[in-house]
Amino acid sequence: MTVWLGTTIKFDAASTYPIGLLIATLLVMIMIVAARLLHEHTPTVEEPKITTILAALSYGIYLYHWPLFVIFSRLLNSGQAIAATLALSLSFAALSVYVIEPLIAGKTHLRHNSLAVAGVFVIAAALTVVTGRQVQAAPALSQLDTTLWTEGIQQDIAQYRRAKPEIVAAHTPRQTAAETRLAQSRAAAAQAAKGDPHGYQAQNHQSTAAAHHIPAGVSIIGDSVTLGTASYLSAHVANALVDAEGDRTMNQAVSLVAQQQQAGTLREFVVIACGTNSLADYAKVLQQLLDTLEPGHKLVLVTPYNGKAQSDWNSSKLTVLERALPASHDWVTLADWATTAAAHPHVFKGTDGVHFGGHQDGNVLFAQTINDALIAAAKKPAKK
């Protein structure tokens, strides 16, 4: 059963984590109980020697294997790294169980195991040297990592600054708090429209947000790609509130949309940029997003881009599905970042082909793609 689970349950399937891991845990419990019952009902039967040895070494192997594999995987190919890891994990586990632990417990004396102890120190010294060389040769923090860290901190600061009015609103009668938010958002929208007569808010003649008590402006919900350009988006997309987080999936975005709607903070234009981490249920989750958004909103979908993606990847399939939606949903607009990004590969130079964090041209292109889509969305009706 365990082998079957390992070969059939996929990493990118949403059911793997709540269901697959639960099944695996239950199977382990059954194995433990079965082993215990077998032991109690066969008191006169000795276990095979190899089973006893492996049982004694198992925890040591568990402790040692990962750091060893991390080291060897950088120096050797996969097969060699696995072989070296297995050999040394077994060796260290045996030394721990049969030499070091008895020494610590006072069950044996150093002079009886001096050769084994010397071997331990020699191997440990060699591994220390190898580890030191790897640390010294490791690359410094990349520009992408730096950008994601700093953007995350800046977003946290912005959220902290918004905390006070949100706390005040939470202790204000609901109707009064909602009216205050609406008044503030409309004032900001009017100011933005006056400042940019060609922007999306100046074109938003078919808006029904006021009738549905929806704050004006844009809610941008994204993953790490959006996080890498969050500050730029906040400054260059009028009246926008950015909420981005690394590794965010579409279903997490849907949950956030529902939470913000419930709180009355989700703005009229909803920009979703979360397709990079698509799971196998991408079509179902996208439909949930369409169903979750309440009347009065206008949805903008940002297609994901991955320079290494194949046509059978979930993110690629999601892009195809998103491109087809505006034809059947007049309140949905496409911000085709996948097409724009593919036409400007220079913004991904030195990156993983997904993030452009730190490349100013990428910031400009991403914001322009969203702004163009917002202008197109402003000219279309809202969800009814």
From TrEMBL:
UniProt keyword annotations, A-Z: Acyltransferase, Membrane, Transferase, Transmembrane, Transmembrane helix
Region feature (Disordered): 187-208
UniProt cross-references to Gene3D superfamilies, sorted A to Z: SGNH hydrolase
InterPro entries: SGNH_hydro_sf
Membrane-spanning residues: 17-38, 50-69, 81-100, 112-132
MF terms in GO: acyltransferase activity
Protein name: Acyltransferase
Organism field: Lacticaseibacillus camelliae DSM 22697 = JCM 13995
Organism ancestry: Bacteria, Bacillati, Bacillota, Bacilli, Lactobacillales
